[in-house]
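Researcher: Batch entry, complex prediction.
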Amino acid sequence: MIRLNGVGKRYPGGKEALRNISLHINRGELVFVTGHSGAGKSTLLRLIPLLERPTRGQIFVANVSLARLPRRRIPLLRRGIGMIFQDHRLLYDRPVFDNVALPLIIAGMPYREIGRRVRAALDKVGLLDKERHYPVTLSSGEQQRVGIARAVVARPPILLADEPTGNLDPALSGEIMRLFEQFNELGATMMIASHDVTLINRLGHRRLTLADGKLIDDGVERRRET
Amino acid sequence: MTVWNGAGRLEAPMKPHQSHGRRRFLKVWLAQHVRALLGSLGAFTRNRIPSLMTAGVIGIALALPAAFLVLLDNIQTLASGWQGQPHASLFLRRDLNAEQVTRLAQQIGARKGVVHVRIITPEQGLAELRELSGFRQVLALLPSNPLPPVIEVEPSGALTPAQVDSLIDELAALPSVARIRLDRDWLQRLHAILYLFERGTWVVAALLGITVILVVGNTIRLDIENRRDEIVIVKLIGATDAFVRRPFLYSGLWHGLAGGLLACLLVETGRLLLTGPASHLASLYGSRFELTGIGFSGGLTLLGCGAFLGLVGSRLAVGWHLSAIEPR
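Model: Structure tokens for the complex:
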């Protein structure tokens, strides 16, 4: 589903965020990306929906080379990728319902369908009773779950999460990870960047380890051993 | 809903009509437009004060040239009312005696297209000049009467300007006529002046049109800046440029339309204020002239201009500022 061949990313100014990364993530896999802050986890995730372009190498998403994807088709790539951010990235002047409905409105879904889908997604993250609330009135964990509902509401085949549990206490983090596992069981390919090693170890999925922009462990060997 | 499942779907042109049929594409497209239209109208009415201020600037900018054009229109109507009866003064050769002059006047009066002739003898002319000019003492110094006999000719009002011209030419060609003067000259000058003013008004209108475009453009630019975060987020989750653009374009349209409406109101209010004094003035001249307003089609034109300029302004602003905002 996601394939990287010798990908490097150097920012203007010379900082090398990623060096020669090659990896392959299969359809329906759940993969954790770990490493110290600054190791390149975020950069790696941002390459996939083309929020950044690599300076070297090739990326394939669903067998499509991103380098050859025309600019006007980038929105369609992004519609197929649900993204969850540590800082939630919600629209704070719109109620929860509107935030979650946004991907469906962008895709031009009929209204009846939107209501049904949004409530199903909110139900899934346990916020059905908060649909008329504004994000600022919600706790950080609840805002994160609104972000998750927005990412999954259009049922994208790929979900990316950048430090989704960064600010949350362990109980909430575990809850959110269980949600992710449920989406994964429904067929979504997932990449989750996190430095919460204890949590990742407990869950026991494939784990990519980055250090200083290099992939030092792509988790395939370890999985064969276990 | 999966927008794409695999290679083929993303690689193929992803216009919705190819995967779901033209009908669905049109429906979605229309729904998106209605959404943007209503959404931007909602935003316009929610931010009432800034919206009205922008609309006010646009309204005044549109009302000024519109008012000038309405005024010119009225003056032209008035002037064309006077054009019917030009008088021609035929200055005859000084050596003609009274009898010859009378005969000539009869001949001219019998011509087709001539309604009325009047003879002004040199003596009458001198008397009139004495009465009118206050040159009594100067005139008394003259050894003899310098004035020629004059025949005043009034062509029929049914003649076209071209026919009047050819009549005048024929009269001028008469051997007894030394010089001819048509008192239509001042009217022609008036028309020339009006034409100049009209041209000037169009120049001003063009400049004010550019002003409207810049004002709307600036309003939309500020709006884009204020909603930068929102734009980034919707682009992040797959909004096309057109989707992001639409609300701003409609917003420009609403500002322009509101400005056009305001301009109509301003011009009509101005007319109502001037109508009383204008008809009073007209009645003093024994005319029943009434100020005509901007009219229905004029109002529509003004609204159309407002909408068009608003759209152009917002399109420019969107083109300049929106593409610079990309998700980070």
